[in-house]
Specification:
The protein is mainly alpha-helical. It contains four helices and three strands, in the order αβααββα. Strands 1-3-2 form a three-stranded antiparallel beta sheet. A hairpin with a 2-residue loop joins strand 2 (72-74) and strand 3. The longest helix is centred in the first third of the chain and has 40 residues, at 2-41. The chain is rod-shaped and about 75 Å long.
């Protein structure tokens, strides 16, 4: 009898853990898709967005700029065109 109760409790705990993990996964997936859609909708990206879009560090972005990646300056801020980024990466 005690084993049956223990097994039932274990099954309920496992079920709760599984449900919690599924909710966390769905939330994180939704956030990731939302961020991707936000970047996909924008043509011009700032430095951090560009690094995120390409999946590189700031130092690596500086190397791409040194190799000829074009950008525009707005005051002290740099903006990168996704079209230019994609074209540049295809041809490097």
């Amino acid at each position: 009898m005690e084993q049956t109760i223990e097994k039932s409790i274990e099954e309920k705990i496992e079920s709760l853990i599984t449900q919690s993990l599924e909710k966390i996964f769905e939330k994180k997936l939704g956030e990731t898709i939302g961020q991707h859609n936000e970047h996909a909708a924008k043509e011009w990206l700032n430095v951090q967005e560009t690094c995120d879009y390409i999946g590189i560090s700031y130092k690596s972005l500086q190397k791409l700029i040194d190799q000829g990646l074009k950008f525009i300056s707005i005051g002290r801020s740099k903006r990168f065109s996704k079209t230019e980024i994609n074209h540049f990466l295809k041809n490097v």
